[in-house]
Amino acid sequence: MEFRIRHWTHLGLGAALAAGSLSACSKPAPHETATPSEVSAPADATPAADASSETQDIAAGLASSGGEGEGGVAVDAALTDPVVYNIALAVAEAHVRAARDAFEAGETKAAGEMFAHPVSEVLFDMAPIFEAQGVDDFTDLLTDASAAVFGGEGIDQIDARTETILAALQAAAQKAPDNGADSATIAMGVVSDMIDRSVKMYRAAAGSDLYEPYLDGYGFYRTAEATFAKSEAAIGAGHPEAAEAMRDAIAKLAAAYPTATRPDHLDADQSALTVAVSNVMLAMSE
Where in the sequence is the domain holding 164, given as residue range(s)? Predict the structure, then answer.
């Protein structure tokens, strides 16, 4: 099924609101060289030598336009790298989890915007990748959820919409490209990326009085937590030190992000959070 998101007229009310209100999805403080909204390819990521001609054609088209989508999504790498592909999905998942929890907390405007934002930030530029992998278009689920929030639907309906979106993201994950990486390796890549983004967004939130950076970071934390919970046994079996480092980092993030609503004071130890991220990366490299 073709993705129908190449024109703003197809993005719906929610995406238009998100584009105006959450532009660039709460970029971190100016001194950061890369935003947590970016989905970066691993340094050694290269297209598979036996890639199909269709995949090569898509890659060539993406390369001609820079290979980077809005928000820095490395869509060319996502063609062949399941970690990058799944990180793109995880970025969308983070917005969805944050949106639902914000809605439950009474933050209606932020929730509506967060449901829609992945369409313009990630999914818009991942569309040719999803189409090549045979993923059905699910973007309407997000824009419809956004419109439903602004339209006055209740928590039960929004919860149901959220679960439907998460199921669609999981279905898309099942069609990730295969480069030989096992499920534990892919999960580690996603979890570590979400942890890193969450810590960076906490730093950005602490440097301002804005709600959006906090909510972004909260969503990344919740997605790291959920992804790790599903893969903890597999990661622990093959990479026990990485699993322990991830548990520690997620526990610290849980304390830093106690709720979807921003606390009056963001007083988590940022040095400890940074060390926790470093420990995760170090453990993964061993």
Answer: 1-21+51-180
104-136 residue pLDDT tens: 999 999 999 999 999 988 898 899 999 999 999
Our count of domains for the chain comes to: 2
Judging by beta carbons within 10 Å of its beta carbon (0-12, 13-18, 19+), is residue 156 exposed, middle or buried?
exposed
Question: Do 166 and 221 reside in the same domain of the chain?
Answer: no
Which residue type, as a one-letter code, is found at position 223? T
Place of tokens 């890659």: 59
Neighbour tally for 123: CB within 10 Å:
28
Cα four-point dihedral sign 87, 277, 198, 43:
negative
CA-nearest of 105, 164, 125 to 5 is 125
d(CA 194, CA 91): 8
Structure-block tokens of residue 7: 């024109």
* Alpha carbon of residue 153 to chain centroid: 25
Could you give the CA distance from residue 103 to residue 158 in angstroms, rounded to a whole number? 8
pLDDT tens string 21-50: 443 455 444 334 344 434 444 444 444 444
In a shared domain, residues 75 and 166: yes
**Residue 72 backbone zone (phi > 0: left; psi -120 to 50: alpha; other: beta):** left
The verdict on 203 and 257 lying in the same domain is: yes
